[in-house]
Amino acid sequence: MTDVVLASLILGPAAITFLLRSNAALGFLTLCLGFVLSTSVIGDLKQLLSEINLSVTQSTLGLILLIAPLTITLIFSRGAKKKELFFWLQMIVALCTGGLLALSVAPILASSSEFDLSTSAFWDELQNLQSVIIGIGAILSLFLVWSAGLHKPKKH
So what's the pLDDT on residue 78? Predict the structure, then answer.
């Protein structure tokens, strides 16, 4: 069961990117932002929500900060027409996004429930590839974002 959840976390962003032709580079950078938010401001945000009488656990809030911005970004950036090379680079970034999502969500799931992704057969391999996943995802994301700014639209 944990292998299926881990595979769906990794392949989910790639499937959305493929089906909607979304911008995976923006998705990766959004996931990085969500990770920073879920580790830096989660305590203050939980306190703010409790002051307005909304009860939410810290783990639920962390999952929302990771998954919601990524999903919204992939949906809003859909429909881009990409050349074949850029499409495959986007798919590589989408797989890196899925890997980073799995690496980010696993500790939250382990602390909030009995569901522990570290019992998966692929977890150790994923952790060994953590630096590669983040490095390739970040470099390709920046390249894709920067290269999109280099193309000037044709005047009509």
Answer: 85
Is residue 75 domain-resident? yes
Give CA–CA dist 49/102, Å, rounded: 26
Answer yes or no: are the C-beta atoms of 146 and 34 closer than 8 Å.
no
Residue 90 lies in a domain: yes
CA 74 → CA 16, 19, 100, distances in Å?
7, 11, 15
Torsion on CA atoms 99, 103, 108, 111, rounded to nearest 10: 130
What does the alpha-carbon distance between residue 44 and residue 16 come to, in Å, rounded to a whole number?
A: 32
pLDDT at 133: 97
Q: In 10 A of CB 72, how many CB atoms?
A: 12
